[in-house]
Design goal:
The chain is α+β, with helices and mostly antiparallel strands. It has 9 helices and 13 strands.
């Protein structure tokens, strides 16, 4: 429009001054040519600017794609806090879980902090306050957050930093990321449990060596000692007494070795359950008959069965082994009164067999520990402290359990419960 007005003005001046037509055309053409040249360079300049802007836009788009890819790969969510308004907004969430907490945009920060686990809440509130007030530049926290609409918690690891500050130096805008670390925590817990088991195994190994050294040498020394003097004994009565002592210590040594072998087989998984159906009353009565000659003093051994007859299906050998240990334990610690072997009515396809005695009883603080390996309430009573531990190991392998109810000075009831 400016060039066109200029040409009209030149044309009018030329007419008034009597300028020739050829000169007029040459002047107008020159103006047009200069205009086209100026327009050409202007368009090239604009084109370069557009090309630069498009290149920057492509870089930004590429950066955003890479940024989102990193967030997805790391399963992060990003958020920002308006420190002055104390509100939080989640910008992106790539955690890929439906049970994660995602508050609405510009949610009050205090509401979000209220769903943090009580054990972590006070610490996290103090950290966020320090960040908003400008006392710290960033933070790294690990804490638990309550799942929406449940009472369960999940683990979160969070990073945050101050993006901008106001004139007073306090945080104005805070950016941060959060990620779920339940799997890592589960792995840490598993590693901790494995380490504790390894330490416990090492402790048990040391205890085993110390106890076995004593328990095996005691009957072995007796066997060696009595055997060495046996050829020098002249009287038949004294010879028979020594032979009985040798046989008794042989049996003790064999029992210790059998106990150790039983624990090793079960815990290694090499000995599988052998299920069979048998009549329980007759099986228990046979065990009772074996122990009657071993009773001390005037102790009476009897039975009390809930039914006249009952068939069960379980591992007969393991059940017999458990009851043998429970009966042997009752006979060892009962010097007067009675021992009763019985069972209750089955409950939910599970049967509880028990051995009740009027022995010395067990103090409450020892009632759980008696099932630990090598634990002995009375160190002066013979035994390796393995019998009840074997009972629990075998009971667990059968899907059952063992326990004790006892009153010190009045007696104990050891029970063995297993699926029928």
């Amino acid at each position: 429009m400016c060039n066109f007005a200029l040409m009209i003005e030149i044309f009018l001046v030329a007419q008034q001054g009597g300028m020739g037509t050829e000169v007029l055309i040459w002047v107008i053409g020159s103006i047009l040519l200069l205009s086209f040249i100026a327009l050409f360079f202007y368009q090239r300049l604009v084109g370069k600017e557009l090309e630069s802007e498009l290149t920057q836009l492509e870089k930004v788009q590429k950066h955003n794609v890479e940024y989102e890819f990193v967030l997805k790969a790391m399963k992060l969510c990003t958020w920002h806090i308006d420190a002055e308004a104390r509100t939080i907004t989640y910008d992106n969430d790539f955690r890929g879980r439906d049970d994660c907490l995602i508050p609405p945009p510009e949610s009050p920060l205090d509401e979000l902090l209220s769903v943090v686990a009580p054990s972590d809440r006070a610490r996290l509130i103090k950290t966020v306050d320090n960040l908003c007030s400008g006392r710290v530049e960033d933070y790294h926290e690990v804490y638990q957050v309550c799942m929406p609409h449940t009472d369960n918690y999940y683990w979160t690891e969070s990073y945050a930093t101050v993006a901008s500050r106001n004139d007073e130096g306090k945080a104005k805008y805070i950016v941060g990321t959060s990620m779920r670390i339940d799997d890592r925590k589960a792995m840490e817990s598993a590693l901790m449990e494995a380490r504790n088991k390894a330490e416990e195994s090492d402790r048990l190994k040391s205890a085993f060596i110390a106890n076995m050294s004593h328990e095996i040498r005691t009957p072995l020394n007796a066997i060696i000692g009595f055997t060495s003097v046996l050829p020098d004994v002249q009287g038949d009565e004294e010879r028979r007494e020594l032979i009985n002592l040798i046989q008794e210590n042989n049996q003790k040594l064999l029992t210790i070795i059998n106990d150790v072998m039983n624990i090793s087989k079960i815990e290694s998984g090499k000995e599988q359950l052998v299920m069979s159906t048998f009549e329980l009353n007759s099986t228990l009565q046979s065990l009772v008959d074996v122990f009657i000659p071993k009773l001390q003093g005037d102790v009476k051994l009897s039975t009390m069965f809930a039914r006249a007859s009952i068939n069960v299906k379980t591992d007969l050998n393991r059940m017999t082994e458990v009851m043998n240990h429970l009966l042997a334990n009752a006979v060892k610690f009962t010097v007067q009164g009675s021992i009763i072997v019985g069972y209750d009515e089955p409950t939910g396809k599970r049967l509880r067999v028990w051995v009740r005695d009027t022995g010395k009883g067990i103090a409450p603080e020892h009632q759980e520990r008696v099932f630990e390996r090598f634990f002995k309430v009375d160190e002066y009573i013979p035994g390796a402290g393995l019998g009840l531990s074997i009972c629990r190991t075998m009971a667990y392998s059968m899907g059952g359990d063992v326990g004790v109810e006892s009153t010190l000075g009045e007696g104990s009831t050891f029970w063995f419960e297993f699926p029928m």
